[in-house]
Amino acid sequence: YMCSLSLFHYSEYLVTAINNPRSLSLDSFLLNHSFEYNLAALSSWVEFTLEKFIWPEMKQITWLSTVGLLMVIFGDCLRKAAMLTAGSNFNHIVQNEKSDTHTLVTSGVYGWFRHPSYVGWFYWSIGTQVLLCNPICVVGYTLASWRFFRERIEEEEITLIHFFGEEYLEYKKKVPSGLPLIRGVKVEL
C-alpha cells in the first residue's frame, strides 16, 4: 500500500515534469491535493490499524488484497497513460483560458473514455482500500470519489465546450465519460 501511494504521487510529479514542465511545482506531487484527500488517507490508516487489532484475520484475505493491487496498478497505469497521451494539454488544474497550443485529445485512451485520468484515479483510490481490506473506506472512497468526479467532470466539460464547441460535443456523443453513472454536463440544444 505505501509503495503504491508513494509511486502514485512521485509519478504524478515525474509525468508532469516530462509533459508540461511549465506547470511543474511542488503541488504536482498532489500531496496537498485537499483537506478531504488528507482526511481520507488518515481515515484509511485509522481503519486499517483498528481492524488489524480487533479482527486481524480480516486483513489477511489474500485474494481480496490481490484484487485491490490489480485495481491500483490498472488505475495508476490508466491515469499515467492519459497524462502522457494528453501531453502538454494535461494540467492538474482545470484551465479557464484556452492557450494557443490547446488541442482536443481524442486518441489513445481518450478514445476509450473522455476522462481517462479521472477513471484511473477513481479505480486507483478504491483499489487502495480493497488492497488494505478496509470495508468502511471502500464505501467511503467510492462515494466521495464518485461525487468529486461528477462535479469535476461537469465543470471541466463546460470549459471544454467553450474551448472546442461542436468538436467536443461530437466527441462527447461518441465516447463515454468512463465513470459509472456519470454522463457529464447536460447540453440542451
UniProtKB/TrEMBL annotation:
One of its GO terms (biological process) is methylation. Keywords: Endoplasmic reticulum, Membrane, Methyltransferase, S-adenosyl-L-methionine, Transferase, Transmembrane, Transmembrane helix. The chain crosses the membrane at residues 121-144. It is found in: Endoplasmic reticulum membrane. One of its GO terms (molecular function) is protein C-terminal S-isoprenylcysteine carboxyl O-methyltransferase activity. Pfam families: ICMT (PF04140). Its EC number is 2.1.1.100. One of its GO terms (cellular component) is endoplasmic reticulum membrane. The keyword Membrane applies. It catalyses: [protein]-C-terminal S-[(2E,6E)-farnesyl]-L-cysteine + S-adenosyl-L-methionine = [protein]-C-terminal S-[(2E,6E)-farnesyl]-L-cysteine methyl ester + S-adenosyl-L-homocysteine. The keyword Methyltransferase applies. It is a multi-pass membrane protein. Belongs to the class VI-like SAM-binding methyltransferase superfamily. Isoprenylcysteine carboxyl methyltransferase family. Catalyzes the post-translational methylation of isoprenylated C-terminal cysteine residues. This is Protein-S-isoprenylcysteine O-methyltransferase.
